[in-house]
Every structure is written in C-alpha cells, then in structure tokens.
Automatic annotation (TrEMBL):
GO MF: oxidoreductase activity, acting on the CH-OH group of donors, NAD or NADP as acceptor
Transmembrane region(s): none
Top-level taxon of origin: Bacteria
InterPro entries: NAD(P)-bd_dom_sf, Sc_DH/Rdtase_CS, SDR_fam
Protein name in UniProt: NADP-dependent 3-hydroxy acid dehydrogenase YdfG
Family: Belongs to the short-chain dehydrogenases/reductases (SDR) family.
Keyword set, alphabetical order: Oxidoreductase
Length: 257
C-alpha cells in the first residue's frame, strides 16, 4: 500500500549520498520533496531529474543547516501551502572529519562536526516540528549511526554527535507522545557514499579502503528503509533501526574476506 503519494517530504543533505537516494525514493512513491543542501548546482540537477521523471513537485533550499537564522528565513521563503504542510522531515545532513585522536584533532574540526550533526538537527527541528504539532500530524526521521552506540578509535566527536542524535530523537518522541507525530532514529553501519571522502578531506584512496573487501550498504538501501518506515500504518512507530552490511557485526567488527 502506498501511504506516501502526495505527501511533502523535507530532506536535508539531499545533494548526494543517502539524502539524494531518499529524495528519489520518496518521489518514486509520488511524494513532493523539499531538497536542502549547500551545493546549488546539485540541488538544481536533482530537482529537474525528479520533476521530469516522477511528475511530482521538487523545491530547493540552498541552505547551510549550521546557520540558524538562514534556516528560519529560507524555510519561511517556501510557498505557504508547502511550508505549512510538511508531512515528513528527514534530518540527514551530517559528516565526520578525520580519525585523529580526540586530543590531537583541531578545534575547527570539533566545531564543524558538532555544528552540523547536532545544532543543524536542532535548528531544523525547532523550525519544522511546531508546524507539525499545529496539524497534529507528521513524521521525523533522524540519521543517527551505529557510531552513536559504540565508540571507536578516532571517532570521539563523530560518535558523540551521533549519541546526541539518539538522545535528541528519544527526547522528541517523549515530548510528542500525546500527538500523532512519529519519530525514528535510523542507525546505519558502513554505507558507501562520499562520507569517507569528506572524513579524509578528499583522500580518495583512504576513503576507498574504508569499504574494501566488504559489500557495504548503498545509499539506496538506506533510502528503502527510510521510505518503508514512513509508509507504515499511522499507529506504528519504529523507534530506532540499526542496519549493517552482512559482513559488519557492530561498530568495530568487520569481516573483509
Ligand atoms: P555524504 O557526504 O554523501 O552526504 C552528506 C550530505 O550532507 C550532502 O548532501 C551534503 O551536502 C550535506 N551537508 C553536509 N553539511 C551540510 C550543511 N552544513 N548544511 C546542509 N547540508 C549539509 O554522506 P552520507 O550520505 O553518507 O551521510 C548522510 C547522513 O548519514 C549523515 O548524517 C551521516 O552521519 C549518516 N550516516 C552515514 C553513514 C555512512 O557510512 N555513510 C553511516 C551512518 C550514518 P552539501 O555538501 O552539498 O551541502
Ligand atoms: C558512519 C558509520 O562506522 O564510519 O556513521 O562511523 S562509521
């Protein structure tokens, strides 16, 4: 059954990776999408692809989620009937930087990861959830990670931010318990995207090695899980979902053949 046709879905970090695949899968189901990211050209390309292929509406917001004032203003700039009728929010934009020891990482790197993965989620949530509360209707999906459940060498700040996403997500679910709004934390393991290229500041070789010898999850795999979750009957709320490739058992245990 398709419960998503005609819904309006707001997706941060939609220019590539998990966010882009998620936008396409929602559009395939007949949902309109609001695509958020910092790279205008990629947003425009995706909007065109989605509108041409799926005949739904795609809106673009060129937006850095770490800038609270811009978050408010750009969301306010959406057509009123879209802004006031956001059915699904996917807080996906996020990143990790480096794998250095916590006491050897730079303050700039601490700030960038914390600002994007925690404050970005908060700013977007603060702007959109009240609109859902007003309608007593909506779905919030946050991209956590198995990194939020288990620390690993060099992962201090990233793991801490994803543990924070878990707590923010759980708190939101508690605060919305008397509403029809559902809240889910999606916690993937290794997904092959540009995540590692960003983490290793453009070092393609090092990024590739992250996924060497395993069949990593793909952005489409995660998108399928997100879309299927949001398509469940309205009384069903999956609180969190951890998913990993077959040859990954937890944050540290990977079999590379
Ligand atoms: P990608 O690097 O492929 O995509 C990240 C997306 O986030 C891009 O669209 C990027 O767009 C956007 N983004 C980054 N910073 C900002 C910002 N300040 N404002 C707006 N958009 C921003 O990574 P993934 O698709 O892999 O990651 C998506 C999410 O999934 C992240 O939260 C990540 O932590 C999580 N995750 C990823 C896993 C993996 O193994 N890949 C595993 C578990 C969780 P642009 O640069 O154009 O702004
Ligand atoms: C990304 C997964 O294991 O690279 O959240 O931290 S991992």
């Amino acid at each position: 059954m398709n419960r998503l046709s005609g819904k309006n879905v707001f997706i941060t970090g939609a220019t590539k990776g998990i966010g882009k695949s998620t936008a396409i899968k929602f559009a395939e189901m007949g949902a309109n999408v609001i695509l958020v990211g910092r790279t205008k050209s990629l947003l425009e390309e995706l909007k065109k692809e989605i509108e041409d292929k799926y005949k739904v509406e795609a809106y673009i917001l060129e937006l850095d989620v770490t800038k609270g004032k811009d978050v408010e203003e750009k969301i306010d700039s959406l057509p009123k009937d879209i802004k006031n009728n956001i059915d699904i929010l996917v807080n996906n934009a996020g990143l990790a930087i480096g794998l250095d020891k916590v006491y050897e990482s730079s303050m700039e790197d601490y700030d960038r990861v914390i600002d994007t993965n925690i404050k970005g989620v908060l700013y977007i949530t603060k702007k959109i959830v009240p609109l859902m509360v007003e309608r007593n209707k909506g779905y919030v999906v946050n991209l956590g990670s198995i990194a939020g459940d288990m620390a690993y060498y060099g992962g201090a700040v990233y793991c801490a931010t994803k543990a924070a996403v878990k707590m923010l997500t759980d708190t939101l679910r508690i605060e919305l318990v008397d509403t029809n709004i559902r809240v889910t934390n999606i916690k993937p393991g290794l997904v092959e995207t540009e995540f590692s290229k960003v983490r290793f500041k453009g070092d393609e070789e090092r990024a590739k090695n992250t996924y060497k010898g395993i069949e990593a999850l793909t952005p489409d795999d995660i998108a399928e899980v997100i879309v299927s979750t949001c398509n469940l009957p309205e009384n069903v709320q999956l609180t969190e979902i951890a998913l990993m490739p077959n040859h990954q058992a937890d944050g540290r245990t990977v079999y590379r053949g």
